[in-house]
Amino acid sequence: MTTEKALANTETGELSTVPDTSGWGLVHDEAPDQLKFEEIGEEYVLIYVGQEEIFPPATPRQIEKNEDPGSFIQLHFRCLGKPIVSNAGYELRMAFADVPACTWVRLKYVKNVDTGEASPMKSFKVWQGPEATDADLLQG
CA separation (Å) from 80 to 8, 29, 134? Predict the structure, then answer.
C-alpha cells in the first residue's frame, strides 16, 4: 500500500512524501472507555490485555488528614480495536490473577451480593477463551 500524502516542511515549504504506514506499530492509544456493568445479565466478550495498579493523587482532605489515597487495579481490554478498562474489585482481581494477557474472555454480571456495605458487591462469571492474534487485537 502506498500513501500519497505529503507533508510541508514548515521552514522551507517543500513537500515530502509520507512513507507507507501499514507496518508501523502503535506506541500510544486513545484514552480507554470505561466498561460498566449496570444490569444483571449483561455480558461482554473482550480481549484481556493486562492490568495496571493505579495510584490516584491524594485529595485535599486526605492531605489534610495525612491519609494514604491507596490504589486500585484496572483491567485493560480491547473491543472492536478500541481500548476498554474496568476497575476491578476483589472478585475480578482473583478471576484474572492467572489469565494471560492477550486472551479472549467472556464476562457476565450474574448477581449482587449483600456485604453489609452501602452498595452490594457485583458478582461475575468469567470464562477464558483462546489466545488472541495480532489481527484480533486490531479488530477484536
Answer: 34, 14, 13
Q: Which H or E run includes 40?
A: none
* Phi-psi group of 75: left, alpha or beta (phi > 0 → left; psi -120 to 50 → alpha; rest → beta): beta
Question: Is residue 27 within 8 Å of residue 16, measured between CB atoms?
Answer: no
Output the 3-class SS for 110-125: EEEECCCCCCCEEEEE
Taken in order of first residue, the domains within the chain and their CATH numbers are 32-139 (2.40.50)
Q: At CB < 8 A and 24+ separation, what contacts does 112-120 make?
A: 112/40
- CA–CA dist 104, 128 (Å, integer): 6
Say whether 26 sits in a helix, a strand or coil: coil
Report pLDDT digits (tens) over 64-107. Answer: 999 998 899 999 999 888 999 999 988 999 999 999 999 999 99
Handedness of CA 21, 131, 36, 70 (dihedral sign): negative
Give just the sign of the alpha carbon dihedral 99, 100, 106, 111. positive
